[in-house]
Design a protein that fits this description.
The protein has a single domain, classed as Inosine-uridine Nucleoside N-ribohydrolase, Chain A. It is built from 13 helices and 10 strands. The two termini are 22 Å apart. The protein binds 2-(4-amino-phenyl)-5-hydroxymethyl-pyrrolidine-3,4-diol and calcium ion. Calcium ion binds next to helix 1.
């Protein structure tokens, strides 16, 4: 049973990550924290509460985090996620309230209150909250079990030719997070572009015929259309739940150990995750990069999660 905090910006694929983290019996979801990214902090926080309502997730607290990146102006991905950040499905009115505590304090307090090496942080948005937590309480660095994040890539970008959105919108935060002495696994575009919601995926989810399944079909249909119009994908890549799938069953995601750093100064390459595949791998390397996904095992986990919610 992996104890995790999901730090996200829902977001269509973040919503699927919430589903998988909450429903799967091998994951103990201690809390959900939000960060500005796909949309403004107000919108993504509202969306997290709305997704919680769909999932009947009333026993997992939700905390609002940073409204903007550390240094740069906020950028949102409205063309992919729409005006609300979660266009395509009807969002219920949340019955759960947002917690009073700031997301960064929840992260710090949870890591410090639990046994060392038991809490995994799973960021699926920009890394602002995690960077702030590191700066506010550096003791978390040696106490966290590992970081498994969605972001970056070594083969392509999606926000620039070489930079992925979550890293590109707050590269200074990513630089802080990637340069700490904790185990970190980067689940980037190289991996998540294999997590395609193909026609048979749509059919399988649609056939479940439940309220939950139709919510996710509606979301994924919008995501598919947006991905077709913006990036010419026939089937949309469902990025964020790949992190959770890896934690549930590491055989679903093949990783390679390699040093990774974040470009902050390049005139064309800001936000690039520079992965060093040269051999030999340095002794002190503590970063891993995801390279290959087992597509059918991945989607089986998602189907199971939808069935468990009912
Ligand atoms: C997806 C995202 C942002 C921009 C685009 N074009 C597509 C969001 C997803 O929620 C995911 O976490 C990550 N950022 C993929 O880049
Ligand atoms: Ca996201």
């Amino acid at each position: 049973m992996e104890k995790i905090i999901l730090d996200c910006d829902p977001g269509h694929d973040d919503a699927v990550a919430m589903l998988l983290a909450y429903a799967n019996p091998n994951i103990d979801l201690l809390g959900v924290t939000t960060v500005a990214g796909n949309q403004t902090i107000e919108k993504v926080t509202h969306n997290a509460l709305a997704v919680a309502e769909i999932l009947n997730m009333y026993n997992v607290p939700i905390f609002k985090g940073s409204p903007q990146p550390l240094v740069r102006e906020i950028e949102v991905s409205e063309e992919i996620h729409g005006e609300s950040g979660l266009e395509g499905a009807e969002l219920p009115i949340p019955s759960q309230d947002i917690q009073e505590k700031h997301a960064v304090d929840f992260i710090i307090e949870t890591v410090m209150a639990n046994e060392p090496n038991t809490i995994t942080l799973v960021p699926t948005g920009s890394l602002t909250n995690i960077a702030l937590a590191v700066k506010k309480e550096p003791k978390i660095i040696e106490r966290v079990k590992e970081i498994v994040l969605m972001g970056g890539g070594f083969n392509t970008g999606n926000w620039s030719p070489v930079a992925e959105f979550n890293i590109a919108v707050d590269p200074e935060a990513a630089h802080i997070v990637f340069n700490q002495e904790w185990e970190l696994t980067m689940v980037g575009l190289d991996l998540t572009h294999q997590a395609l919601a193909t026609d048979d995926v749509f059919e399988n989810i649609n056939n479940m015929g439940t309220k939950t399944s139709s919510f996710f079909v509606d979301l994924l249909k919008f995501f598919q259309k947006a991905y077709k119009e913006n990036q010419d994908f026939v089937s949309p890549p469902v990025h964020d739940p790949c992190t959770i799938a890896y934690l549930i069953d590491p055989t679903i995601v093949t990783t390679k150990k390699a040093p990774i750093d974040i470009e902050l100064n390049g005139s064309l390459t800001v936000g690039m995750t520079v992965v060093d595949f040269r051999q030999p791998i340095p002794e002190d390397c503590n970063t891993h990069v995801a390279v290959k996904l087992d597509h059918s095992k991945f989607w089986d986990l998602i189907y199971d999660a939808i069935k468990i919610i009912g």
